[in-house]
Each structure stands twice: as structure tokens, then as C-alpha cells.
Design brief:
By secondary structure, the chain is an alpha/beta fold. The protein has 18 helices and 13 strands. The radius of gyration is 23 Å and the shape is globular.
């Protein structure tokens, strides 16, 4: 394993046994939660809100961790714990071996200014500053003068498609362009961790897709540690190296997105993924064979990260074919079209979940 690969496996940020309870006496309410009181009962009987319950997540260096769930699941509460905009009731948030819950005010300011950047849903640009000055905000707050960050800011604005717009003001830009400024600002800060709270959800669908593609393109080069909040499963499956699904403040399932899609472990997840176009989101690497004793006759070569939909188009739907699978030019396995077709059929649990969902639907 080379140095870069080893770095990718290192845990950069670890959330351990994290609870957040909102109310006048959260410590006493915590005792009730640990005794088995759930979120609705905690509110009805004790008038406290259970925001997060025993969250344990490891976020690896250079990966995108997507935290997703429906409204009220706790995802935005969780990301605001990472930079301590919200204080936990109990728990640890460990960054490079240090528990940031123990940081004093000075160290916490340094953390927010130098080690973490944030991209917000509604852009949070300064309306009286130019695009260039907005891109350099984090460096300016650190006390750097414009000459020290202007070259970097111009470079990142160029990279996100805003070259020549440096003198514009936020109100002169479209929503998609404003969010590009937000990303350029995060990149100009040179912070190793990017926190993105529903960063693309306010954008039109086509612009949103462009922004997702831009983020993946930049991440291929930069390999930052990104914590991305989303309520959209398609977006999560597209972006995530590690997917964490929350419900009522608890982690229902987490892991590699393809694994969750193929092996949902909870009825909530089954319902969540029931309408997903599996051919469009499943990848060849998730269904290929790697340990065959003899090489089959192959019709060609496909990439390990290609979607099953693209392979179906390539094969013309011929289930008798097999393909060699490569990643970065190296052979990694074989894909049998019959196995591909089987992967498109939901598991028995998923089929039951879809039937139950239809029964619950009116009409």
C-alpha cells in the first residue's frame, strides 16, 4: 500500500457516544433516554427534545461522509457539533487524536479558522463584498492581507467556473454562481475539512447536478475530508464514500453506499431505497466476481466504477455475455450479465417493504 492509500484509510474525525438533548435539564433527561425512553415519550412526559442518541461515526481522511435523513432526523444538529456551533450533552468529537469538546475558546477559534471550512445551504456570502473578497473571507478573518490570498482566491474562482467574475457582487450572480463562490471560499481557506450543510438543496435540479459533478471533480484532486449533509438519497449515493442514515436522532445504518443499497438492515432503510433506480446507482464493483478459478470468455472490458445501466447499454441487454473489469488499468474481476440482472431485483426484504409501503399509500 502506498502512502496516499494509507492516508485514505486513516480516521480523521471520530464521533463517539454523542448525545444531544434540548431542554432545561438535559443531564436528567439523558438518564431517561439511557433507561429506554424514546424521542416521542421524552417530549410527551419530560418536555425535552432528543436531538441525537449515541452517535458513533468514523470519518476517514480524504473521503466524503454523507449524513442523510428526513427533516427532524438530526443531521444538521450533528454537523453543527463537529465545529461546536452546538455543544453536546455528552460524548466526544476526536480530530487527529484530540477531543475538540475539551478545547478552550482560543483553540476553538483556531480550529474554525484554519482546520474547518463550511459551505452553507443559503450561500452566506457578504453582500457588500466582491466575489474576490468573499472568496478570501476565511483568510482575511485570520488577519492575512489581501495580497497574501488574492492569487489563491483567483485560482479557485477560476477552477469553479467564475473566472472574470471577481469584481461582481453576490446580488449580481445566480444562485448556482453564488454557491460556487461559497465553494471557492472554502477551498481558498486551505482547511483540510469541509463541512457542507445541505449545500446544494436550494439549487435548481440541473445546477445541483453540475455542482455535485464539480465537487467530485475537485475531490479527485484534493482528497479533503468532507462532511456533507443531505436529505436526498440520489445525491447521497452519488457523493458518499461513507453513508450515514439517521432517523429520530439515531444512526439506522452506515457504511459504503453500495453495500447499504444491496443489504439494507432495517425496514426504514428498505422503504427509503425502494424507489431508487438500482441500475443507475449500482456500480460494477459491487456485483463483479473477483475469485474465479478460470477466466470466462469476455465480450470486452468495463470500468469497476461504471454504472450497471451503462453496462446494460453496452451489452444490448444480452445476458449471455461477460466482461473483464478494470480499475485504473488494472484487472480486478469479471462481470457476468446474469449476475448483474439479479442485482437489479430487490431483496425479499426490500420487496416486502415496497408492498407494505403501497398498502399504506392512499388509493
Amino acid at each position: 500500500m502506498n502512502g496516499a492509500a494509507a492516508m485514505e484509510k486513516t480516521v480523521k474525525l471520530s464521533i463517539r457516544n454523542l448525545y444531544k438533548i434540548f431542554g432545561p435539564d438535559p443531564r436528567r433527561a439523558l438518564e431517561q433516554v439511557r433507561a429506554g425512553v424514546d424521542k416521542p415519550e421524552l417530549w410527551e412526559k419530560y418536555r425535552h427534545v432528543l436531538g441525537l442518541q449515541d452517535i458513533n461515526v468514523d470519518m476517514k481522511n480524504g473521503e466524503i461522509t454523507v449524513i442523510m435523513g428526513l427533516s427532524g432526523s438530526g443531521k444538521s444538529t450533528l454537523i453543527r457539533h463537529v465545529n461546536r456551533l452546538i455543544e453536546p450533552t455528552v460524548g466526544e468529537i476526536v480530530l487527529d487524536g484530540e477531543n475538540i469538546i475539551e478545547f478552550g475558546e482560543a483553540r476553538l477559534r483556531e480550529l474554525r479558522r484554519k482546520e474547518m471550512s463550511m459551505v452553507f445551504q443559503h450561500f452566506a456570502l457578504l453582500p457588500h463584498k466582491t466575489v474576490l473578497d468573499n472568496a478570501g473571507t476565511a483568510r482575511s478573518v485570520r488577519g492575512e492581507d489581501r495580497s497574501s490570498y488574492e492569487k489563491d482566491a483567483r485560482g479557485w474562482l477560476e477552477r469553479v467556473g467564475l473566472g472574470g467574475q471577481e469584481g461582481q457582487y453576490p446580488h449580481q450572480l445566480s444562485g448556482g454562481m453564488q454557491q460556487r463562490v461559497g465553494i471557492a471560499r472554502a477551498l481558498t481557506s486551505n482547511a483540510p475539512i469541509m463541512l457542507m450543510d445541505e449545500a446544494f438543496s436550494a439549487l435548481d435540479p440541473l445546477i445541483r447536478t453540475d455542482m455535485q459533478d464539480l465537487l467530485l471533480e475537485l475531490q479527485t484532486e484534493l482528497t479533503k475530508t468532507i462532511v456533507f449533509i443531505s436529505h436526498d438519497l440520489d445525491e447521497a449515493l452519488k457523493l458518499a464514500d461513507h453513508l450515514v442514515i439517521l432517523k429520530d436522532g439515531m444512526v439506522v445504518q452506515q457504511g459504503e453506499p453500495q453495500e447499504i443499497l444491496l443489504n439494507p438492515n432495517d425496514p426504514y432503510i428498505v422503504d427509503f431505497i425502494s424507489d431508487i433506480n438500482r441500475a443507475r446507482v449500482l456500480r460494477v464493483r459491487s456485483v463483479m466476481d473477483t475469485g474465479l478459478d478460470a477466466a470466462p470468455a469476455v465480450a470486452g472490458t468495463v470500468d469497476a466504477d461504471a454504472t450497471l445501466e451503462s453496462v446494460i447499454a453496452l451489452s444490448g441487454g444480452d445476458t449471455a455475455l461477460s466482461y473483464a473489469v478494470k480499475r485504473n488499468g488494472t484487472h480486478v474481476g469479471y462481470l457476468d450479465m446474469k449476475k448483474l440482472v439479479r442485482a437489479l431485483v430487490p431483496t425479499a426484504a426490500a420487496r416486502d417493504g415496497m408492498r407494505n409501503a403501497k398498502r399504506r399509500s392512499p388509493g
